[in-house]
Amino acid sequence: MKENAIYIKTGDIVEDARKIIERARSNAVRSVDFCRVQMYWNLGKRILEEEQEGKERADYGSYIIKNLAVQLEAEYGSGFSERQLKFCRQFYRVYPIGNALRSQLNWMQYRLLIQISDPYKREYYELESVNNCWTGRETERQINSQLYERLLLSNDKETLLAIARRERIPETPQEIIKEPMLLEFLGLEAKPSYYENDLESAIISHIADFLLEMGKGFSFVARQKRIMLEDDEFFIDLVFYNRLLRCFVIIELKTGKITHQDLGQMQMYVNYYDRIEKLPDENPTIGILLCTSKNDTVVKMTLPQDNKTILPKEYQLYLPTSEELVKEINEAKQIAEETKNEGDDL
Hints:
alpha/beta; 6-stranded mixed sheet; 13 helices
């Protein structure tokens, strides 16, 4: 008994020691990253000050950076190239107050942020990178996938920023879930030869990336959730829970255009969770039909006019170009506006 007690105590110490070491290592890396950020900020400040001394010469700034890069790169390496020094100058221009720099962000993230001209959009990605502890690669993906623009389809700018600033908590699925959903990280080819179980297996294998694309507050609950209705059994593809919306989120995967039968089946699954699984203090279940395409008129005629819980959402298996995504966003805005006008007419 005494030996067991010693073993348990030792195990606790070992686990605590591991946490202390890992935390210290993480803090050390973060500290080094932020020192690098401050170094580049100070370089940008010094370059701009020197430029202003010779402001009567239009090409003086380029002259300074070019010659400074030749000397610094030879001595310290590629981290001080002409291109990098131009980023430093831009960094200081965009973030002139050193005390406002965020220690949670690394140089890669700041370099991405300073290339965003819209100050509201820049603030959104800056705050969300901090709030969600995004890595540089995650910040880059969210910017390239135009997360901000996709969320603006169903939100206004003030709402998005209020959530990012943590001034309000998301209250509707539209404030979290975007369209189209971009699933390029699954590695599936954009062709009709894959099946729904291939899509589901790929999502499970990349669950962390999928949760990042889903949005805030999601946690995984079940795969192929079996439910019995008398003698008939059904299997729900994926079940999640969102702690911000305080509700279950059911996802059905479709590799083609959704039908009214798919919508009816999802309504049944949502009803089941609302009547059997949901606790009294939780909000109504949300059902998401992930599909490659949808007929908006069929969706509108199949679902109730006041539908707020069943959301057909298109997905793509590749990261589109900015032009393609802008086109899709504009088309979605037009459809949303037409739907709103039709509702007003009724």
